[in-house]
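Encode chain A's predicted structure.
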Amino acid sequence: MQSKSRTAVRLALKILSPQYRKALGEVITEADLHEIRQWAGDLGAELSAQEAASLIILRALAGEQAATIQ
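Encoded structure for chain A:
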């Protein structure tokens, strides 16, 4: 599960950060935009790719925070 979460976060960073894309020499594809919306779940179809990417990062941060508290 953690591996899937890391994959989703990496894709979210790719979509949200021009610096991340430049550092890795990557471009955003239509497949990336579709995939990030799928990672966002039921809300994904209603969100922009940037909103979906932000949601993925917020979920990851919330999960890390919950794990630290326990």
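The mean pLDDT is 86.
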